[in-house]
């Protein structure tokens, strides 16, 4: 009778926890996540560079240890392995027709090889000698088959004639190791190089004086440089930042992206989508030693997608048609990503040429009340289209303490909650009893065994930051109300002693943390002023 007079009863539920953000469901994030990952993990040595061939089927070249390997873009199996380097190989670069590939090395020699997967010629066609130390940069021009440029630890950038194997120009502008570079997509005579002297220099092969045309100060040792597709913007990576510069505007800084936590090791330009895309759909991809790959929309100046890998990343490349992605790590693992293709379907014209028309599946006959079988349907019969389905509400099985609270048996509800293992449920039942002004009365009516359950719970969870504010106040009330019973029982007394010990330990920890805070706070103020 009492239940029918009160309003609807709402079961006690734990307060919702703050959950981490779900992965973004934007079309772009779905596109990048749609790549099927193939892991190649038997290389052991760091992957120093990755490059895609400009021509289909866009073979993949990777340098690691003292070898250069060309992989099949479909099966990701090695198609050609060149081990003609006396030491570590760096910076593989395809010629614009994809028939030749050049690479530098720790020995200081630039070697050029024929990419003939049938003959598999491993001996170099040309060896360009001139650098005094390791060569970390080798790049072919975007439009010129006859020349390439290189840079190394001797701080010199050299421009080579591939046919004769001789040096055409030498540029001496850098003051530290030259580690990266890129050819301009707008002019075959322009190229840029990045150095550990924190600068990026643009060179013109038509200028015989050997001086740079433009100098950009990145602010950190430069790890990678890439021209954006228009040729008027250039992106530089160094430290934990990626910066975009306006080359036409005299090297003006357009935007600085600092979304990585560690050094950005490699950047490249990829396309969002498999079809022909416009400039606003190009994305700047970056990888870092923090294990993250980030896609940056430089037209909207925002990060559009982030992916996490389990190890530091050193190199990244994307095929020209954006169907394949390759990422190299410091632990000798290459993560190949293959984009999903749309399923090809036969059109009606092709079916007509084969002599077969399209076959339509016959529609299932809908039963109507005029048919005898309509009245013979069982409960397992599926509803037809247009039928009105009445779903039976599922009966939820409530917890025992919720049933007792519904019947106003507050003491039994508290004991039932204390017998569970979820502290959040127990605390929520206590909050409900506080709202009903019955908690202290329930504590007063507990027998010694039930009081032991309560003290054991308080002993275990009173010092937890999530519950300490409420449970410490409850502990004081329990000791005031049931102090005599506690003194008469050795078991209850032991619970109280353990509770006191844990509280004293927590106080000592908090005091120690306050001392540390007092030491760090002045240092943080000094750093903030700089």
From TrEMBL:
It holds the Pfam family WD40. GO terms for biological process: positive regulation of transcription by RNA polymerase I; rRNA processing. Gene3D superfamilies: YVTN repeat-like/Quinoprotein amine dehydrogenase. GO terms for cellular component: nucleolus. The keyword Transferase does not apply. The keyword Protein biosynthesis does not apply. Residues 381-523 form the U3 small nucleolar RNA-associated protein 15 C-terminal domain. SUPFAM superfamilies: WD40 repeat-like. It is found in: Nucleus, Nucleolus. Keywords: Nucleus, Repeat, rRNA processing, WD repeat. WD repeats lie at residues 128-170, 171-204. This is U3 small nucleolar RNA-associated protein 15 C-terminal domain-containing protein. It comes from Stephania japonica.
């Amino acid at each position: 009778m009492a239940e029918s007079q009160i309003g609807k009863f709402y079961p006690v539920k734990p307060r919702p926890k703050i959950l981490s953000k779900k992965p973004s469901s934007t079309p772009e994030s779905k596109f990048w996540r749609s790549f099927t990952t193939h892991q190649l993990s038997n290389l052991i040595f760091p992957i120093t560079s990755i490059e895609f061939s400009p021509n289909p089927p866009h073979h993949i070249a990777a340098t690691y240890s003292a070898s250069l390997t060309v992989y099949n873009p479909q099966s990701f199996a090695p198609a050609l392995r060149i081990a003609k380097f006396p030491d570590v190989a760096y910076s593989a670069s395809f010629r614009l027709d994809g028939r030749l590939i050049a690479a530098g090395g720790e020995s200081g020699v630039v070697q050029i090889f024929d990419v003939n997967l049938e003959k598999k010629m491993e001996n170099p066609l040309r060896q360009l000698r001139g650098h005094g130390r390791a060569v970390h940069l080798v790049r072919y021009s975007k439009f010129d088959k006859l020349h390439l440029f290189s840079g190394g630890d001797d701080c010199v950038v050299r421009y080579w004639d591939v046919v004769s194997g001789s040096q055409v120009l030498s540029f001496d502008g850098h003051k530290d190791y030259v580690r990266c570079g890129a050819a301009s997509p707008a002019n075959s005579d322009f190229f840029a190089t990045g150095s550990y002297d924190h600068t990026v220099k643009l060179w013109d092969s038509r200028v015989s004086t050997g001086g740079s045309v433009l100098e950009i100060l990145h602010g950190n040792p430069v790890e990678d440089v890439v021209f954006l597709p228009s040729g008027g913007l250039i992106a530089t990576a160094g430290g934990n930042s990626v910066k975009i510069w306006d080359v036409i505007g005299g090297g003006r800084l357009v935007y600085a992206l600092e979304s990585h936590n560690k050094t950005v090791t490699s950047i490249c330009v990829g396309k969002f989508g498999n079809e022909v895309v416009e400039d606003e759909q190009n994305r700047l991809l970056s990888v870092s030693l923090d294990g993250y790959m980030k896609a940056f929309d430089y037209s909207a100046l925002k990060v559009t997608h982030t992916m996490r890998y389990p190890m530091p990343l050193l190199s990244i490349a994307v095929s020209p048609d954006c169907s394949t992605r390759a990422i190299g790590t410091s632990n000798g693992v290459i993560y190949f990503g293959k984009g999903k293709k749309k399923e090809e379907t036969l059109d009606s014209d092709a079916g007509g040429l084969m002599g077969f028309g399209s076959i339509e599946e016959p529609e299932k006959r809908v039963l109507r009340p005029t048919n005898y079988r309509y009245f013979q349907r069982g409960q397992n019969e599926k509803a037809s289209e247009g039928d009105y389905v009445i779903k039976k509400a599922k009966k939820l099985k409530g917890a025992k303490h919720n049933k007792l609270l519904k019947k106003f048996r507050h003491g039994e509800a508290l004991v039932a909650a204390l017998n569970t293992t979820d502290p959040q449920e127990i605390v929520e039942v206590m909050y409900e009893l506080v709202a009903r002004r019955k908690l202290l009365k329930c504590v007063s009516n507990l027998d010694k065994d039930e009081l032991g359950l309560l003290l054991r719970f308080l002993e275990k969870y009173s010092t937890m930051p999530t519950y300490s504010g409420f449970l410490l106040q409850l502990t004081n009330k329990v000791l005031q109300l049931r102090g005599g019973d506690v003194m008469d029982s050795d078991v209850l007394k032991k619970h109280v002693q353990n509770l006191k010990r844990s509280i004293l330990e927590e106080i000592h920890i908090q005091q120690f943390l306050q001392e540390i805070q007092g030491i760090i706070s002045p240092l943080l103020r000094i750093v903030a002023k700089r």
